[in-house]
Amino acid sequence: MSTDESPTTAPFDAARIAKAVRQRLQSLQRSGITSIRTPNASQPDLSSLQTQVANIQQNSLLTESQSKNEILTDDNRTKAEDHAVEIAAEPIPPTSPPTPSLTLNISRETAVMPSKKQSELDTVCQEVADCTACAELAGTRTNTVFGVGNPNARLVFYGEAPGAEEDKQGEPFVGRAGKLLNKIIEAMGLTRDEIYILNTIKCRPPGNRNPTPDEQQNCAGFLKRQLEIIQPEYIVCLGAIATHSFLECKTPIGQMRGQFFDKNGIKVLCTFHPAYLLRDPRRKRDVWDDIQFLMKDMGLTIPKNSEGVT
């Protein structure tokens, strides 16, 4: 190609910008944000903003810009689109303290049929399957990993993120760490069908890296709805990432073991992740001590002469 050939150009894609902004607004809405403050200090709700952006996609802006030959290079067009998303992604915080992202509405006053709970979970599961809020994860996943178990479970095991096998099968904790978790559950005298298992995020991070804060926040709305449907009495946070994300703290996991923390009426126990036990089997004794502490509070029988997690 000649060196003096002009760079490739393309029309300014207003529809693409609008789509990106709408996806970001939807992500913020799922995370519990209901409005953002604009430069004139008004606070429109996100549903209204999404409607306005949708109208932009359908109007004649693109046609008009093309007719006026308003074109940008690929590089400048990308910068413009990124800037539009950044504007939507930076709400000015309200004057009052924000509500914690994982504040749950747990009420056990009214019994709910398991079939109704499962139907509600299925609805959220489909929304997760359609989610593209995290572009990298949506582009590399094989399956979303929603959660599995009893919709009326008293106990939820809460991990950090899906791994390769989980991504392949669409179910949490089915790899080596999952097999060890099964042994923990069986040592309690329970089965996977009696409890519920889920993760901080619903898609596998490439290379099994740790999930980013943004990725966790994008999934926070799904997690909130899952737990409000299940309404468990107990949650076991497996590992530091799940613990710090759910309890919104940075205390080392070793200092949080052997005690319950309250999360909107749910008793939360923190212990080591099964994957960590595979790397350091000496910690299995610690985890079994934590599990026995849990079992006693749940009213479960601790088997005599049990070796616990092996």
Description:
The chain folds into 2 domains: 10-89, no CATH class; 114-298, Uracil-DNA Glycosylase, subunit E, CATH 3.40.470.10. The chain has helices at residues 14-30, 46-58, 61-67, 74-89, 114-130, 135-140, 164-169, 176-187, 213-230, 240-247, 274-279, 284-298, and strands at residues 9-11, 71-73, 148-149, 155-159, 196-199, 234-238, 260-263, 266-271. The strands form 2 sheets. A 6-stranded mixed sheet has the order 3-5-4-6-8-7, with helices on both faces. Strands 1-2 form a two-stranded antiparallel sheet. It is built from 12 helices and 8 strands. With 310 residues, it is an alpha/beta fold. Strand 7 and strand 8 form a beta hairpin. The chain is globular, with a radius of gyration of 23 Å.
